[in-house]
Amino acid sequence: MDCLLAVGGGSVIDTAKAVAAGFYYEGDVWDYFINKARITRALPIYVVLTLAASASEMNCGAVLTNEETKQKFNISAEALFPRTSILDPTNTYTVPRRQVANGSVDAIVHVLEGYFTGTYPHTPIQDGFVETLVKTIIATTRKIMESPTDYDARANFMWAATLALNGLTTAGIGKGGSPNHMIGHSLSALYDLDHGASLSIVLPAWLKYNQQTLARKLTHFGQVIFGQNDAAATIKAIEDYFHEIGAPIRLSEANIDRSEIQKIAENAVGLARKWGLKSYTQDVIARILELAV
């Protein structure tokens, strides 16, 4: 085998990355995901993107779900960068509305993770990148929903989703984190929930939990993106947009009962530890999820 060709979206590309890394490893490829082994080489990977969302076509990460352990974990290594990725918007014309919505949410949350968790207090250039990407994603998503074969909308959406997780917006923001993805991965692992749908449920709840701490930045974001003037109104505007495109914002909309919250939180703690999100204890995660009921 000389190389791998991944034709699809994030799940296909991430699977190809795991196979590419596992090709040179004699053990279980899951060892990479639980930090039992380190990726030092992989087969070359080439991509033809057919679903814009994950930016896996231009980064060195991959996420997979272990169906036996119910864990959705990630790997990252220099060797996993695709050698070439072909982004042709016409290949996304037939992506169904549900997956367009999932991609829109995923790309938005990708940039907002760093935007709201970066530790450096003054990053106007990176903030400007994020705000432009979010405005572009929202505008093009609406156009795509109206006209699935709008070439310009598909092209700009595709490029925005790629830039949302290729390192551009997080370069120079200090140490940040991805708490929304951390919790969302548990929803997907436990209930086979679409990745985008898991994030549209978690993000508003996470913002509400952190509303006081993030008040200044939330208000600025709301002014720039939605014309809102306070943090609560900004969160409501985000929820309204998610509902507009058909994405869920409550656990109940995904048929997940409130009684499941401790189970989800217990699952999510494993990834929180792996990612070094020490403040996200099971209790904290459960309190965030309570705001998604």
Tell me what the structure shows.
By secondary structure, the chain is mainly alpha-helical. The chain has two domains: 4-87, Rossmann fold, CATH 3.40.50.1970; 96-290, Dehydroquinate synthase-like, alpha domain, CATH 1.20.1090. It is built from eleven helices and five strands. The chain has a three-stranded parallel β-sheet with strand order 1-2-5, covered by helices on one side. Strands 3-4 form a two-stranded antiparallel sheet. The chain is globular. 44% of the residues are buried. The mean pLDDT is 97.
* Order of the strands making up the biggest sheet: 1-2-5
CATH fold field value of the largest domain: Dehydroquinate synthase-like, alpha domain
Question: Could you tell me the strand content as a percent range?
Answer: 5-15%
Give the tally of β-strands.
5
User: Main β-sheet, in a few words?
Assistant: 3 strands, parallel
What is the average per-residue confidence, as pLDDT, rounded to a whole number? 97
Shape, principal axes of CA atoms: globular
Q: What's the helical proportion of residues?
A: 40-55%
Q: What's the number of helices?
A: 11
Total separate domains: 2
Radius of gyration: 18 Å
Weakly predicted, low-confidence segments: none
Cα separation of the termini: 49 Å
Please identify the structural class as seen in this structure: mainly alpha
CATH architectural label of the largest domain: Up-down Bundle
Order of helices and strands: EHHEEEEHHHHHHHHH
Q: So, the CATH homologous superfamily of the largest domain? A: Dehydroquinate synthase-like - alpha domain
CATH class of the largest domain: Mainly Alpha
